Amino acid sequence: MVIRKGVYKERKDYHKELDTKWSSYHLHIHKRKIIRRTIENISKNKKILDIGCGEGENVELFAKKGWNIKGLDLNYSSKYVILGDATKTKFKANSFDVVLCLDIVEHIDISKHEILIKELKRILKPGGTLIFGSPNLAHLFSRLSFLFTGKLIRTAKINYHPGDRPFNEYKQILRKNGFKLIKTQTLPLGVPPILQRTLNVKITKILYEFSNLISIPAFSFDNILTCKLKN
Questions:
Q1: Residue 213: predicted pLDDT
Q2: At CA 135, angle to CA 133 and CA 139, rounded to 5?
Q3: Which fold has domain 3-229?
Q4: pLDDT of 151-173, one tens digit each?
Q5: Rounded to 5 degrees, what are φ and ψ at 229?
Q6: Do strands 47-51 and 96-102 pair parallel, antiparallel, or not at all (unpaired)?
Q7: Which residue of 11, 77, 113, 211 pairs with 189 in a disulfide if CB–CB is 3.0 to 4.6 A?
Q8: Could you give the C-alpha distances from 5 to 40, 49, 61, 134, in angstroms and in order?
Q9: CB-based burial of residue 150 (10 Å sphere; 0-12 exposed, 13-18 middle, 19+ buried)?
Q10: The pTM is what?
């Protein structure tokens, strides 16, 4: 039985049924390719958790192909996804070889970020891998807006992304809690939401791909970090 709460009750399976006018449309497509390539490079006998996975589209895809993967989400459950809180899971310590934590930290209040990171550390095996992704409050368009207007462009409305932080702050909190950064995959700068909503999808795709020429993590709208938990 599928359970939908929160945004999934309102918008159903919106990550599976993509709207081309969604401001994160191209970003989501690009990121999905990166994540799927990442999982493909993980051995099938490794135990994987996709935490905050939403509808669990990647979990379902790879579980059907034989990967040892499960999902957990606060607002969604299905055959492949367990309903649960990322900051206080019910998994035993040292349960997983790999944990994916993608685009959930920004939905959690900043005061609870360290709680989340400590929980990820607890359920990972020593030497385990964390794939951590999040939007970057200090993206280029936000910096330009602050320079000329004194206002930042948040990555979403504050009630939806109460945990917005600059990219470097996420790196600092991960290092503080025993994670060593191995690799950074930088996503394009993206297309300003107003253009995403008003221009033809083919045009915004060209703009999105052009923005990929500026591949600087501190300026990017989103980054994916591969980290190792120190033994």
A1: 64
A2: 135
A3: Rossmann fold (3.40.50)
A4: 998 888 899 899 999 999 999 99
A5: -80, 125
A6: parallel
A7: 211
A8: 30, 21, 22, 22
A9: exposed
A10: 0.89
